[in-house]
């Protein structure tokens, strides 16, 4: 009589080399990994994102084989690929005479429901495991804020610092402050040259050809041989070490800075490596904290600012996702319905800030948080773009975009479509902020100082038009009352000019 076989599923964002599963005796365990058209097709993804996941999955499969596990790796062009992940599992359970199915809890609500449905359909024993990646459990944030009217990230972040003893001096925060964010808002000095980013160039033309042959729709570009992202744990650790050694000391000062031609600045670009779980958040945070203890010249503002993004913001966003889904996906506080302008797909706009941010995103599948929040997101909110449209764009274009982190940042922080669950106010600005934090305005077709008239920057009239149109929803918000005080001091003629200018631009949004 043959021994009972267990089938273990590993999803494309579950590439955790340190998971306890891989310490088990590999005998009688079959691991399945699937490159699925369903996963490439639920939105149009950036071509570099599709390739990054496939290459990372293939490298992880090799790691498992070297550990002695039997791996059924189903490539996107395999003749026996049944399509969806559940369909492939159904076939393997039958063909391999599997007696037990095990999986790690998916991080996307969509896949979580699909796998649970599959388990109900299977006639064998099934068992779910934690992915052993995050520092909080799915429902921990919801329980932390039980009974509170609002979720305040800062209080959650302080709890996390204490819980994991990160940047702590006993019971107090290191150097006496929890948050050094005000020190992290410098623009790049003139003629300042950021460090060249570490790249991992690979020839991927064969995989590109397969995607084209299968007619898998993608967005963005990829120069042959110019795929640059880490797709193994080894490469991910190399990128982490590069960030700690070469970028961390300047990260804080310039984490919000933007400049033409500077797509990386001092950012870590570790988000794909973490979101695919090749790196754990705790090991990243510990590496940064260790570097700070070793080198007193690294500013704590850089260290704390980076750590807050991971153990604060990243964990917080995941907690909001599991606390508020599936309803969160349909929230539209302002009832915005406008279509995304066509130039979001090619970068062909006369607004230089958007041309730079979108062009960079199409070229590298990457933009840093201020480009996402205060350029593309800022425009979409001011212009009244449907959050569904915005979600699809962000989820598709960025290499690190997985719904649990994308939708809470987009529909929450960026578009305020959740009415204030994630952010305490809409994050919008006129041209003034963009000019302060970048050199984008210098060579723009539009004038950053003009609010109305020919060549006026659209952000300027959009800003006031947005607040006027949403006065009933925003006027009582204590963080933005000053906007309405200023608006009320304007004379009627000036206001009419602003609103007319905004409406004219909105009618011609595809030509901006």
Can you walk through the features of this model?
With 512 residues, this protein is mainly alpha-helical. It is 47% helix and 6% strand. It contains 20 helices and seven strands. It has helices at residues 37-41, 47-66, 85-95, 109-121, 140-144, 153-164, 205-213, 233-254, 271-275, 281-294, 300-324, 352-364, 369-382, 387-397, 403-414, 431-437, 458-469, 471-474, 481-489, 492-507; strands at 6-9, 29-34, 70-74, 100-104, 125-129, 168-169, 172-173. The strands form two sheets. A five-stranded parallel sheet has the order 3-2-1-4-5, sandwiched between helices. Strands 6-7 form a two-stranded antiparallel sheet. The longest helix has 25 residues, at 300-324. It is globular, with a radius of gyration of 24 Å. The relative contact order is 0.10.
List its traits.
about 500 residues, mainly alpha, Rossmann fold, Serine Threonine Protein Phosphatase 5, Tetratricopeptide repeat, DNA Cyclobutane Dipyrimidine Photolyase, subunit A, domain 3, 3 domains, five-stranded parallel β-sheet, 20 helices
How is the topology of this model organized?
Blueprint: E1 6-9, E2 29-34, H1 37-41, H2 47-66, E3 70-74, H3 85-95, E4 100-104, H4 109-121, E5 125-129, H5 140-144, H6 153-164, E6 168-169, E7 172-173, H7 205-213, H8 233-254, H9 271-275, H10 281-294, H11 300-324, H12 352-364, H13 369-382, H14 387-397, H15 403-414, H16 431-437, H17 458-469, H18 471-474, H19 481-489, H20 492-507
Parallel strand pairs: 1-2, 1-4, 2-3, 4-5
Antiparallel strand pairs: 6-7
Helix pairs in contact: 6-11, 8-10, 8-11, 10-11, 11-15, 12-13, 14-15, 17-20
């Amino acid at each position: 009589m043959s021994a009972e076989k267990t089938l273990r599923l590993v999803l494309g964002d579950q590439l955790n080399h340190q998971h306890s599963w891989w310490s088990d005796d590999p005998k009688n365990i079959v691991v399945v990994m699937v490159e699925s058209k369903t996963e490439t097709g639920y939105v149009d993804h950036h071509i570099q994102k599709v390739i990054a996941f496939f290459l990372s999955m293939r490298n992880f499969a090799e790691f498992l084989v070297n550990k002695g596990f039997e791996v059924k790796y189903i490539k996107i062009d395999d003749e026996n690929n049944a399509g969806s992940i559940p369909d492939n599992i159904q076939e393997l359970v039958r063909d391999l005479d599997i007696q037990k199915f095990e999986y790690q809890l998916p991080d996307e609500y969509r896949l979580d429901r699909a796998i649970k449905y599959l388990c109900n359909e299977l006639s064998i024993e099934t068992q779910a495991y934690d992915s052993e990646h995050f520092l909080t459990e799915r429902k921990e944030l919801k329980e932390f804020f039980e009974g509170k009217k609002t979720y305040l990230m800062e209080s959650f972040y302080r709890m996390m610092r204490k819980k994991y003893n990160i940047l702590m001096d006993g019971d107090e925060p290191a150097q006496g402050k929890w948050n050094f964010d005000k020190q992290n808002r410098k623009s790049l000095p003139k003629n300042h040259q950021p460090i060249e980013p570490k790249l991992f160039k690979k020839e991927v033309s064969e995989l590109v050809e397969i995607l084209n042959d299968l007619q898998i729709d993608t967005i963005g570009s990829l120069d042959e041989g110019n795929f640059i992202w880490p797709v193994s744990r080894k490469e991910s650790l190399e990128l982490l070490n590069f960030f700690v050694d070469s970028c961390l000391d300047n990260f804080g000062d310039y984490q919000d800075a933007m400049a033409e031609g500077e797509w990386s600045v001092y950012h870590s670009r570790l988000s794909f490596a973490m979101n695919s779980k090749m790196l754990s958040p705790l090991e990243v945070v510990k590496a940064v904290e260790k570097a700070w203890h070793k080198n007193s010249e690294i500013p704590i503002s850089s260290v704390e600012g980076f750590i807050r993004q991971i153990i604060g913001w990243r964990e917080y966003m995941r907690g909001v996702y599991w606390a508020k889904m599936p309803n969160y996906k349909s929230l539209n506080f302002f009832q915005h319905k406008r279509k995304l302008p066509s130039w979001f797909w090619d970068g062909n706009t006369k607004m230089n800030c958007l041309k730079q941010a979108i062009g960079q995103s199409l070229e590298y599948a990457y933009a840093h948080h201020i480009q996402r929040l205060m350029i593309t997101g800022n425009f979409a909110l001011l212009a009244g773009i449907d959050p569904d449209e915005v979600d699809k764009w962000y989820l598709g274009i960025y290499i690190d975009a997985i719904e649990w982190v994308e939708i809470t940042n987009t529909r929450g922080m960026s578009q305020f479509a959740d009415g204030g669950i994630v952010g305490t106010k809409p994050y919008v600005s006129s041209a003034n902020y963009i000019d302060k934090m970048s050199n984008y305005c210098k060579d723009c077709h539009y004038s950053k100082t003009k609010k109305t008239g020919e060549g006026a920057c659209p952000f300027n009239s959009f800003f006031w038009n947005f607040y006027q149109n949403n006065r009933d929803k925003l006027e009582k918000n204590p963080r933005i009352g000053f906007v309405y005080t200023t608006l009320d001091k304007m004379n009627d003629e000036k206001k009419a000019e602003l609103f007319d200018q905004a409406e004219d631009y909105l009618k011609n949004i595809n030509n901006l």
